[in-house]
C-alpha cells in the first residue's frame, strides 16, 4: 500500500515466538490432532518480503505419526506496531471459518481460534496452507513481478478470477450467509456510519499533527454524500489482488481479513478499483510506465464483476465508494508513515503531502 522504493522499517513478521514454544506445543498437541497425535516441530516468521505490514504471521510445522510433517499458518493479533487501532481479531477468524465451512468463497481452511493470550503472547488462529501467490506489492505489480512477466492471456485471467471470487463473496446477503456478527451499527446508525466512525478513529492516530486539508475536505464530502445502504453483504475491506492467492490464473483463496465488516457490493469493488489506480500511480512515481497489456481496463473490470455478480452496478454508489477508498488509502499511508519512528519530520513531510501518492488520489477520484 506504500511506495516500495523506501525502507519499510521494522515489520512485526520479523519477530519470533521462541519463548512460547512449550505452551504452543501443548496447544498443538491438544487442538491439532487431525491425523493422530500432533507434535510441534518448529515456528518460523513469514518472510519480511511478504505483502502487508499489519499482521504477525508465522509458519508452524506439525508432525503426526500417520501424516508426517504438515505446515500451517499461525496468525497472531499484533502486539507491537499496532497498525489498526480497531481490530476485531475474532471476527477476522470467524468470517474465514464461516466461508470455509459453507464453501461460499475461496479461503484457507481454518483449524482453530485461541483467545487466551498466555499461549502465544496474544490471541491467535491457525489456517491451512493454500497453493498460490499474491500479486506483488513491492514493486507494484504494474512495475514488476510474476504478473508483469505473464502472458497477456494470463494477466487478464488473473484479474478476471479475482473479480469473480469477489463477486462470489458478495452473492449472498449477510442474513443469507449467517454472518450477523458483522452487524455492528448502533440503533439509528447505518453500517456505513459505523465503518466511517471506525476510520475516523484511525484518522486520529494516522497523522503527526492533524489531517491534511484534502483529507478533511474528502471526509466532509463523504458525510454529505452518504448513500442509503441496501443488500448488505460481507465487505472484505481490503479488496485487491495482492490479498489473494493465485495458482497460475486461478484465485485459490482470499486472505487478510483485518478490515472485514458489512457493506454493499460496490464497497469492495470501489476499493479494488481505487487500489488498482494506486498501483498505477505508484509505478509512475517510480519513473516507470505501467504496462500490463492483458490487464482489463477500469470499465472492463466493472463489466467483469457485474456479470459475475448477476446484476448491474450502481454507478453513483460506486463513485462514492471509490472516493471512500481513496480516503482510506490516504489514511493507511499516513498511519504507516507515522509509525515510522526512523523518519525525521522533514523526510516525513516529503511522503505525506497532498501531491504524494496515494494521498493525491483523493483529489483525483473526487474530480473524476
Indicate the low-confidence ranges by residue numbers. 1-9
Number-wise, the strands total 9
Query: End-to-end distance, in Å?
Result: 22 Å
Number of discrete helical segments: 12
* Coarse shape: globular
Strand order of the largest sheet: 1-2-3-5-4
Beta-strand percentage?
Answer: 5-15%
| Helical residue percent band | 40-55%
Mean pLDDT: 91
The largest sheet is: 5 strands, antiparallel
SSE series: HEEEHEEHHHHHEEEEHHHHH
Structural class comes to alpha+beta
- Radius of gyration in whole Å, from Cα? 20 Å
List the main descriptive attributes of the protein structure presented here.
5-stranded antiparallel β-sheet, 9 strands, disordered N terminus, 368 residues, alpha+beta
Model description:
- This protein has 368 residues and is of the alpha+beta class.
- 40% of the residues lie in helices and 14% in strands.
- Strand 2 and strand 3 (68-76) form a beta hairpin.
Quick overview of this protein structure:
The chain is an alpha+beta fold and 368 residues long. 40% of the residues lie in helices and 14% in strands.
Amino acid at each position: 500500500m506504500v511506495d516500495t522504493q523506501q525502507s519499510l522499517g521494522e515489520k512485526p513478521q520479523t519477530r519470533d515466538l521462541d519463548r512460547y514454544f512449550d505452551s504452543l506445543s501443548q496447544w498443538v498437541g491438544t487442538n491439532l490432532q487431525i491425523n493422530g497425535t500432533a507434535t510441534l516441530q518448529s515456528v518460523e516468521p513469514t518472510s519480511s518480503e511478504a505483502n502487508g505490514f499489519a499482521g504477525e504471521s508465522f509458519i508452524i510445522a506439525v508432525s503426526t505419526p500417520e501424516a508426517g510433517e504438515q505446515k500451517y499458518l499461525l496468525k497472531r493479533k499484533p502486539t507491537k506496531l499496532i497498525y489498526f487501532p480497531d481490530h476485531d481479531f475474532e471476527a477476522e477468524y470467524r468470517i474465514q471459518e464461516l466461508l470455509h465451512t459453507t464453501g461460499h468463497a475461496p479461503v484457507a481452511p481454518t483449524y482453530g481460534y485461541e483467545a487466551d493470550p498466555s499461549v502465544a503472547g496474544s490471541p491467535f488462529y491457525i489456517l491451512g496452507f493454500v497453493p498460490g501467490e499474491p500479486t506483488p506489492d513491492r514493486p507494484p505489480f504494474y512495475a514488476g513481478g510474476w504478473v508483469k512477466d505473464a502472458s497477456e492471456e494470463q494477466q487478464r485471467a488473473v484479474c478476471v478470477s479475482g473479480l469473480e471470487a469477489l463477486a462470489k463473496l458478495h452473492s449472498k446477503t449477510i442474513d443469507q450467509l449467517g454472518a450477523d456478527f458483522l452487524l455492528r451499527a448502533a440503533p439509528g446508525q447505518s453500517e456505513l456510519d459505523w465503518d466511517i466512525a471506525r476510520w475516523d478513529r484511525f484518522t486520529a492516530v494516522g497523522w503527526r499533527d492533524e489531517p491534511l486539508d484534502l483529507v478533511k475536505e474528502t471526509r466532509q464530502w463523504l458525510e454529505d454524500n452518504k448513500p442509503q445502504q441496501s443488500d448488505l453483504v460481507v465487505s472484505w475491506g481490503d479488496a485487491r489482488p495482492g490479498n489473494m492467492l493465485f495458482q497460475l490464473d486461478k484465485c485459490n483463496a482470499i486472505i487478510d481479513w483485518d478490515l472485514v465488516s458489512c457493506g454493499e457490493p460496490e464497497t469492495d469493488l470501489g476499493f479494488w478499483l481505487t487500489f488498482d489506480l494506486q498501483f498505477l500511480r505508484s509505478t509512475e512515481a517510480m519513473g516507470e510506465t505501467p504496462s500490463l497489456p492483458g490487464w482489463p481496463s477500469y470499465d472492463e473490470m466493472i463489466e467483469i464483476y457485474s456479470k459475475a455478480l448477476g446484476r448491474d452496478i450502481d454507478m453513483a454508489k460506486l463513485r462514492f465508494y471509490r472516493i471512500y477508498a481513496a480516503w482510506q488509502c490516504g489514511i493507511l499511508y499516513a498511519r504507516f508513515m507515522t509509525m515510522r519512528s526512523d523518519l525525521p519530520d522533514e523526510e516525513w513531510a516529503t511522503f505525506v503531502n497532498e501531491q504524494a501518492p496515494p494521498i493525491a488520489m483523493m483529489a483525483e477520484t473526487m474530480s473524476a
